[in-house]
Design a protein that fits this description.
The structure is a homodimer. Helices cover 55% and strands 11% of the residues of chain A. By secondary structure, chain A is an alpha+beta fold. In chain A, 57% of the residues are buried. Chains A, B: Belongs to the acyl-CoA dehydrogenase family.
Chain lengths: 594, 594
């Protein structure tokens, strides 16, 4: 097994060109009038080449080597520094950055595909540039002119890497408990920051000559709780204007020994009279971070997808090559001598796992890219109402994608590991690393439980929450199109319509019950999110089935699309009813305290 | 967080004394007439003390340190050698060994409880003594007098550790592909073994002065496939009769880098003209191993339970101590200041996880111990028909426990990790090690997919397979008792009766469909096994609810039993219907080849 990562370019093309029909929409955006499918595919092919050749080969070695911490300095694994420099040199960090800010101004859709590739190839490596977009958006939106001039160009280009410093030992999900303080720095336009932060990915490293920290802290006269938090930007090094630089009070005190992501340094940081500038208004730090965290959450969802894809690819390759036991049945034309061991890919238990991996990966790719597409519409559509609605839809889809994709990414890794049998437990086969690396995405950028609360309690239940209705309309529109199609597609459409109906009535039940028992929504939030996740996959597969009709070209790709789509409705979608039954349970039955 | 392992003695006592009422049965066995609950509990308390004080503290350090391989020699982590010597000295390996063979002759039930403790405290440590019972049973049953004299006493006492050498690179699940060969050793009563084996747990180490390998190989004139396999016993060192010893041709060529179990050396072994004796008849090696593998499979099930218990214990302790966010509701009398962060144990999403962990752990403990109890009946009952039936029931329950408990143990570790948030990903909190260590039990001693095939195709579907009917009778008898009880218990009884009915009719459907399409049972086996697993947990909880009535003493233990039992029927049991729907899908829909 010497399988290295291969980017799923064919399916990416299917999703962009056929499932989303993105190019037809690009034509209406002035900046993207010249952007067509061949151009987009060329970008993705170049990205794939870079990721496959330069990033993927560092994945296993970085896991073995890990990061080194010595006297406040962090050394990243061999090859990270050089490959990151090439990444910046090639302009990948600015792919979707406005041309006005020095970027290439391409759709976020392409950037999200790049994120998927990077996560699937080498999640630890991706951790360093992971916050570049978020930090850029945050400084663009809220930074003072001074900050924009001093920091933004190098942050946006990726020349300097960024971090997000929220968590403190006592303040994880509950950022209101943050204690770090900012005091005015006399005679300057800035502040001194003092405090300790933990779990800071890339808080210190040797990949760039400066690191720009976005730090949540309590400014002067801050009220307690989240309403007293302000955001500050604190560079590791300060430039003195004469081309020299001086050390700021930013210290890395250690790195964590983690389950996975060993190539990415998770740092404990101490800020001691560290000079920084306020970003946005005082006491409005969380709002400023929101723009950063939303971008980050969709990226985390792409990590789940990337891991699921890698898991699928590894398990699929292994199952073709490994022969054990006679098969109960073999596909027509299979070259297996009678009485001889068959590739395990023929055994039903393995086919179940492999088909489910594939169904999840390809379904999620459509939904993940769809979300990115809404972000593009939100950013670029000529009509302000369209922009607003797209933004709300993206904001509804983001927590679902984050929690559902990351849980599935981890589940996919474990299921794929099972295909390897005992070899799966051994490092050199790679899949156990996928499992370990994938686990973190269920925890950071808001645990998956926090995503579920965000979805149900902040975005679905409130009166006037329109995005949920928009989503159901989208799903039902697809169901109708399917029901006007050929018989197998018609069945998928009918099923999809039924799911939308169930989601709507279940939502109504939760709302009614929650009005009487304000714990209800908290009991059912996780299963509710998963229900919506499965409905979205059904939406993805119904549309894919509608597109990949037997009338379209006879390429194996479409035949397999149809088979996978049918399989999805036959098997994995049973999870929707399961989640629904758990939501019903949570509406009925209280929960003991343990 | 400095939580160390605490054995669940209170629940173990509940299961043995009340759920199984084991002592009433022990009175009918001559050897166990003096064995009563206080004596049994005293044994378990001593075991708990040893495990908590000597074994558990080595768990995290062994994971960090790992095993070292140098020039054919393997060094185990600090403390393993000494603590194992104490374990042998204290007689723990011979707890359930016949007094006639130098053991203490106690029920296997107690031994299984010890296995649970060891697995929960330090799975890697347990790997070394893990095969002592199986090897003892195998040599007792099939060893020649010469072998029994030369090897059995030291194997049985644990003075020498044992291994099981099956797997070769090309032969994992498919042992018929084994290539290792045995040739007669001229002028002796033995054979020379040549071949390579992989994934041999404890193939080499520094814990005992000799290691006894049970090796599957092809003897002279062996037919191909599994019917050509014979079993040989090959000691690492041969004794020359004068108290000296000579090196046998047994070489460790390396140890694996694994996802977990880092304290246990997984060895690649080369046998080169290694002298060994035939065990049992030639070409009947698999049959001889069966006795060993059955014992091992129930032990592996206990690993799943042990990990689930540890996961529950760690997450529960953490959730009490960690305060984040205001709670939607708090239990009566809780000491949380208004507006302040509450222990996360109060948050509904965490209560869901914690209650489910508890429901699974305690339900599985009852079922696991029940299986051991049947093994005791099979070994000791006065009536031969009772013995036979008990053996068949144990043999039916074993693959279910192995696959269901290990999948749940791993699932429990991941769910418990989620309770820790970001801290769960950090080594020092211990839970990520539980996750990594627990994963292997789904793979070895027959992957969980192999267990499912064993259950459905070998033990349920064949005509004349009586154990399945016996199991359903047991379940229905409990359902009837519950239905004669108080209202809440009655509801559980009615549900249990319904589950038994569903299992019976589903089994009939599979059988009918399988007769037409011989792939059917292979498609549904995994979900079928899980269905039976959930039915067994419902059986466990129905009986627990029946016992823990409000009339019984007011100890918190019983109040919590009732709450957990009710929770089980309200929430986790929804998985039964889910698995049932997947079995139905597998009966209907074929599977594509990927």
């Amino acid at each position: 097994m010497t399988l290295t990562y291969q980017a799923p370019l064919r399916d990416m093309r299917f999703v962009m060109d056929e499932w989303l029909d993105a190019a037809s929409w690009w034509r209406d955006v002035p900046d993207w009038q010249d952007l067509d499918s061949p151009t987009a595919q060329q970008v993705l092919e170049e990205a794939a080449r870079f990721v496959e050749e330069r990033i993927a080969p560092l994945n296993a070695s970085a896991d073995l080597e890990g990061c080194r911490f010595d006297a406040g300095k962090v050394t990243t694994p061999a090859g990270f520094r050089e490959s990151y420099a090439e990444f910046v040199e090639a302009g990948w960090p600015t792919l979707s950055l406005d041309a006005g800010h020095g970027g290439q101004g391409l759709p976020q859709l392409l950037d999200v595909a790049l994120q998927e590739m990077l996560a699937g190839a080498n999640h630890a490596w991706l951790m360093s540039p992971g916050l570049t977009h978020g930090a850029t958006a945050c400084l663009q939106t809220y930074g003072s002119e001074r900050v924009k001039k001093a920091l933004l160009p190098k942050v946006a280009s990726g020349e300097w890497l960024s971090t997000m410093c929220l968590t403190e030992p006592q303040a994880g999900s509950d950022v209101g408990l943050i204690r770090s303080r900012a005091t005015e720095a006399p005679g300057t336009d800035g502040y001194f920051i003092d405090g300790s932060k933990i779990f800071i990915s890339g808080g210190a490293h040797d990949m760039t000559e400066n690191i720009v920290h976005l730090v949540l802290a309590r400014g002067p006269d801050a009220p307690p709780g989240t309403k007293g938090l302000s955001l500050f930007v604190v560079p590791e090094w300060l430039e003195d204007g004469d081309g020299g630089r001086s050390c700021n009070g930013v210290y890395c005190e250690g790195i964590e020994k983690k389950m996975g992501l060993k190539g990415s340094p998770t740092c404990t940081m101490r800020f001691e009279r560290a000079f920084g500038w306020l970003v946005g208004e005082a006491h409005r730090g969380l709002a400023c971070l929101f723009v950063m965290m939303n971008a980050a959450r969709l990226q985390v969802a792409m990590q789940g997808l990337g891991h699921a894809h890698t898991a699928w690819q590894r398990a699929h390759a292994y199952a073709q090559e490994r022969a054990q036991m006679r098969a109960v049945s073999v596909p027509p034309g299979a070259n297996v001598a009678p009485g001889k061991a068959a590739p395990i890919a023929f055994h039903p238990a393995m086919r179940r796992i492999l088909m489910e991996l594939r169904a999840i990966v390809e379904g999620e790719r459509a939904i993940g890219y769809w979300t990115a597409h809404w972000l593009d519409i939100a950013a670029r559509h000529a009509d302000v109402a369209e922009r607003e609605q797209a933004a709300q839809l993206a904001s509804l889809l983001t927590p679902i994608a984050k929690a559902f994709f990351t849980a599935n990414g981890y589940g996919a890794a474990s299921n794929a590991l099972q295909v390897f049998g005992g070899y799966g437990y051994i490092h050199e086969y790679g899949i156990e690393q996928t499992l370990r690396d994938s686990r973190v995405s269920m925890l950071y950028e808001g645990t998956n439980e926090i995503q579920a609360i965000d979805l149900l309690i902040r975005k679905v239940l409130p009166d006037g929450a329109v995005a949920f209705d928009v989503l159901l309309r989208q799903v039902r529109a697809e169901a109708r199109l399917c029901q006007e199609s050929d018989p197998p597609v018609r069945a998928a459409g009918a099923k999809l319509a039924e799911l939308a109906q169930t989601v709507e009535s279940t939502t109504r039940s939760i709302k009614a019950r929650h009005a009487q028992d304000p714990e209800t929504a908290y009991r059912v939030a996780d299963d509710y999110l998963a229900m919506l996740g499965w409905m979205l996959l059904a939406f993805a597969w119904a549309r894919a089935l509608r597109i990949a009709t037997p009338q379209c070209e006879a390429e194996t790709f479409y035949v397999e699309k149809r088979e996978t789509g049918r399989f999805f409705f036959d098997y994995p979608l049973a999870a929707f009813a399961y989640r629904r039954s758990l939501v019903a349970a949570g509406c009925e039955a209280t929960l003991p305290y343990v």
